[in-house]
Design a protein that fits this description.
With 364 residues, this protein is α/β, with parallel strands linked by helices. The chain folds into 3 domains: 2-117 and 324-360, 3-Layer(aba) Sandwich (D-Maltodextrin-Binding Protein, domain 2), CATH 3.40.190; 132-239, Helix Hairpins; 242-321, D-Maltodextrin-Binding Protein, domain 2. 50% of the residues lie in helices and 16% in strands. It has helices at 2-32, 56-68, 80-88, 131-135, 141-165, 177-192, 205-237, 261-268, 279-287, 298-308, 336-348, 351-360; strands spanning 34-39, 71-76, 94-100, 110-111, 116-125, 253-257, 272-276, 293-297, 313-315, 320-329. Strands 1, 2, 3, 4, 5, 6, 7, 8, 9 and 10 form a 10-stranded mixed sheet that branches. The protein is rod-shaped and about 110 Å long. It starts with a helix and ends with a helix. The model is unreliable at 10-31 (pLDDT under 50). Residues 34-363 form the Solute-binding protein family 3/N-terminal domain. It is a multi-pass membrane protein. This is ABC-type transporter, periplasmic subunit family 3. The chain crosses the membrane at residues 143-164, 214-238. GO terms for molecular function: ligand-gated monoatomic ion channel activity.
């Protein structure tokens, strides 16, 4: 009996020693059964309250995870970069949001197939022109200089005609310099415009040579003058015209979200990227004329324009740097295959389109 009692006592002591370890192992197993989902990004894909606020990316993940029967908890981050860093640190199992799939990122993370195809777009001011804005070009320095040069040339031609005709055609070109040169300028204007009233005409050989030369010169001069005036009026009105393509932003300040792929795109096109923390801040700088435009992902800009309903903001039709949004995983993650299969099922059942249309159909 004594040896049997001793064995029971030893077994009892062993169970007491190892019981906490068993409980700890069960807790670890339970923790592994619950995915930690990092949420980051901007509306309409992620709202500030990632769990309750929803958004395109969050709703797609909810639908996907529920069909797979996965348990998960959300952990929100202020930026996509900090959320991706949580994968490196082992804090999160995946990142949900408008995560751009770029060549640089695929070196460090694995991605699901895109659940949305996005692009970069430009938003600029499109203020309505006031009455003063419409007539202001007529008072520009360049236009006044052009008119002055035109009158000076007419004065020279008128003087030459008066000198050639004043002794032989006194009724048309009086000896008084003011009247005579004035009539000469009138003849030059009528000749240049090809009106041909016939009230004034040179009768001397010298006068006809001057008039004939002026006819040829005025064809070129008039064309250049009209083109110059038109150019001046066009350039003067560009200040209120919206930006329609990236080439118009060369050497100008452009606002975008800091550390986003759009920063690199702006710099590649010889513009100055001004990084901000939110679209609200970017649009505020645009309205205050601190920047010439805002360049960022098209769906976020569409959603923001609908929210603010500002008629002075204009989105260009041009789209650049088309890219896909997907979910990000650590390189060693085994979840990617199951997520891709589930995303395909959602797309085939058109459930993905239904979620996207709920947020963006009206804008597009």
């Amino acid at each position: 009996m004594a040896p049997r009692i001793q064995v029971q006592i030893v077994l009892f002591l062993i169970s007491i020693l190892f019981f906490p370890c068993v409980l700890q192992g069960q807790q670890i197993s339970l923790q592994k059964d619950t995915l930690v989902v990092a949420v980051a990004g901007s509306a309409p894909f992620v709202f500030e309250d990632g769990q309750g606020g929803g958004g395109i990316a969050v709703e797609i993940w909810d639908e996907l995870a529920n069909k797979q029967g996965w348990n998960y908890i959300f952990k929100t981050y202020n930026s996509v970069e900090s959320a991706l860093q949580s994968l490196n640190e082992g804090v999160s199992d995946l990142v949900v949001g408008p995560i751009s799939i770029t060549s640089n990122r695929v070196e460090n993370y694995r991605f699901s197939q895109p659940f949305y195809n996005s692009s970069l777009a430009i938003v600029s001011r499109s203020a309505k022109m006031s009455f003063w804005d419409k007539i202001k070009p007529f008072f520009s320095i360049k236009l006044l200089i052009a008119v002055f040069v035109f009158l000076f040339i007419l004065a020279i031609v008128g003087t030459l005609l008066w000198l050639a005709e004043r002794k032989h055609s006194k009724d048309q070109f009086p000896e008084d310099p003011v009247d005579g040169i004035g009539n000469g300028m009138w003849l030059a204007i009528v000749t240049m415009s090809t009106t041909g009233y016939g009230d004034k005409a040179p009768i001397t050989l010298a006068g006809r040579i001057i008039a004939g030369s002026w006819m040829i010169i005025s064809i070129i001069f008039a064309t250049s003058m009209v083109a110059g005036i038109a150019s001046t009026l066009t350039l003067a009105s560009l200040g209120t015209s919206p930006i329609s393509n990236i080439e118009q932003l060369a050497n100008k300040n452009v606002a975008t979200i800091a550390n986003s792929p759009s920063e690199v795109f702006i710099e590649e096109h010889n513009a100055n990227a001004l990084g901000v923390t939110s679209l609200e801040e970017a649009v505020s700088k645009l309205k205050n004329e601190e920047v010439a435009a805002v360049l960022y992902d098209r769906p976020q800009l569409l959603f923001h324009l609908k929210k603010v309903e500002d008629e002075e903001l204009f989105m260009a039709k041009a789209e650049y740097y088309k890219q896909g949004y997907g979910f990000a995983f650590p390189l060693e993650s085994s979840l990617v295959y199951e997520v891709n299969r589930a995303l395909l099922e959602l797309a085939e059942d058109q459930e993905t389109d239904e979620i996207i249309d709920k947020y963006l159909k009206k804008e597009e």
